[in-house]
Amino acid sequence: MIDAAGRTIDYMRISITDRCNLRCRYCMPDGITQVAMSEILTYEEIKKICTLAEELGIRKIKITGGEPLVRKGCVDLIGMIKEIPGIIQVTMTTNGVLLKENLKALKDAGLDGINISLDTLDHEKYYKITGTDACDTVLEAVEASAESGIRTKVNSVLQDAGDRQEWRALVKLAEKLPVDVRFIELMPIGCGKRNTGVSNLELLDEIKKEYPDIRIDPEIHGNGPAVYYRIPGFEGSIGFISAMHGKFCNTCNRIRLTSTGDLKPCLCYGDIYPLKELLKSGTDDEIREQIKHAIVIYLTSSGKQAVADDCFTAFISSPSSVWYGLIFMLLTALIVYNGVEDGIERVSKFIMPVLLIMVIGIAIFSLTLKTTLDDGTVRTGLQGLKVYMKPDLTGITVGRFLQITLDAMSQLFFSLSVSMGIMITYGSYVKKDVDLNKAV
Ligand code: SAM
Ligand code: SF4
User: Fold this and answer.
1) Is residue 419 within 8 Å of residue 358, measured between CB atoms?
2) Alpha helices of 257-350 — where are they, by DSSP H?
3) Separation between Cα atoms, residue 150 and residue 95, nearest integer Å
4) Residue 46 and residue 293: Cα distance in Å, rounded?
5) Do 424 and 334 contact (CB within 8 A), yes or no?
6) Does residue 235 contact residue 178 with C-beta atoms inside 8 Å?
7) Following DSSP, what letter does each residue of 279-302 receive, concatenated?
8) Residue 308 CB neighbour total at 10 angstroms
9) Is 389 in a helix, a strand, or coil?
10) How many angstroms does the Cα of residue 130 sit away from the middle of ligand 2?
């Protein structure tokens, strides 16, 4: 399904529990308030949501938590989701502590990929980060997972506080094992707000000094925003998920389902679309409608969506339509003040240059935004333009449709008013020139 920003949403992350057997300092250092089991979605409810979401275009599922493997029957759930026709991939993110003993069952259930979180290979540091002495256990799980043939990735969040150099040992994991080692920038969400992360741009520079032959890997490795590199002679690749310095909101393809049944379109904003009650008393159509609403979110002109702080957003969300409208009205007033006929004459006289300026402006806008950054992230302005050219109106209410139309008109008025502004200024200048010549 395509959302209001033109992004294809085909991937759902499902947190099946809020509980965890570790206490990572950037995630849940004190343990979190545990929600009663009665509030947590049952596996049957999760399967139902997956089935309805599949009908709306969700094809890939990621099982996560908390720690998914601490919830009894997690393996069964994976088997249940794998049975849904149309779901082409089920993967899991785990801290790896309970992985080795579950590996065979997970493989038999059909799990397609495992992401294992491991921020350091140093025992003491691991203990400091997670509050548990399980470094060896997790490392063994990484090795066993890679050997099992399930596609394995290692996720590492580096923090400035003494863990910055951990990349050296972590990168070497990809030298001897066919695993992708991915560095995730610490996000200022939850307890992550209290910690300082490491920029992936700086990290890549450091890695390049050690491995000057590192090259961008054009192969697609998964569903997410990671950018991959290969080091000659290495079995696996090195990936970068640059949430803070890579700005990938414009290619985001996912929604999230919390363990209590709330659909969250974005991590940065609090919008939720609850499903729990609907699962109890609503019809399939009502549940499907709610999922649709979570996906086809209208991007308000105030930039409420998570695409904020991205060049993409700069175009579609800010400044707001109200400002565009005001500028348009101001310029219209100026034309009227100068005399409508004169104003219209000037505009029509210069209509060709106006169109030319608009076309060139849009072309420059699109081209300049299609830039490959140092870390390989591609940004493109066309993603933004797509919103107005090809909005998917499936499941959109009349109110939302009107909002989209209003926003599109505001964009149009804005372009026109800027062009008219240029023309009026130019026109006044020419007129002044003619008047002066007349005077002479
Ligand atoms: N317990 C599992 C695990 O640790 O893999 C699954 C859930 S955990 C929340 C999923 C991933 O989110 C882990 O790789 C973890 O390192 C990462 N994570 C947690 N808090 C984060 C933050 N503030 N910024 C970036 N990544 C974070
Ligand atoms: Fe648990 Fe994963 Fe959070 Fe660590 S990152 S506390 S393992 S949920």
Assistant:
1) yes
2) 276-281, 284-295, 311-316, 321-338, 340-349
3) 16
4) 18
5) yes
6) yes
7) HHHS-HHHHHHHHHHHHS----TT
8) 18
9) helix
10) 8
Residue in this structure with the two tokens 């935004």, named with its chain if needed: 369
In tens digits, the chain (440 residues) has pLDDT values of 666 666 778 899 999 999 999 999 888 766 666 788 899 999 999 999 999 999 999 999 999 999 999 999 999 999 999 999 999 999 999 999 999 999 999 999 999 999 999 999 999 999 999 999 999 999 999 999 999 999 999 999 998 767 788 999 999 999 999 999 999 988 765 555 566 778 888 899 999 999 999 999 888 777 677 889 999 999 999 999 876 655 566 667 778 999 999 998 765 555 788 999 999 999 999 999 899 888 776 544 334 444 444 433 333 333 344 455 555 666 666 666 667 667 666 655 665 566 677 667 666 665 554 444 333 434 455 544 443 443 333 344 555 456 556 665 666 666 666 666 666 666 665 555 555 455 44
**How much distance in Å is there from the Cα of 235 to the middle of ligand 1?**
25
Instruction: Show the tokens assigned to 284.
Output: 């399939």
Tell me how far apart the 2 most distant CA atoms of the chain are, in Å. 96
SS (H, E, C) 86-114: CCCEEEEEECCCCHHHHHHHHHHHCCCEE
- Ligand 1: distance of its center to the CA of 91 in Å? 15
150 touches 114 (CB < 8 A): yes
Asked if 242 and 200 touch (Cβ cutoff 8 Å), the reply is: yes
pTM as predicted: 0.71
Residues with CB under 6 A from ligand 1: 20, 26-27, 64-67, 93-95, 117, 155, 157, 184, 186-187, 189-190, 192
Does the beta carbon of 115 lie inside 6 Å of ligand 2? Answer: no
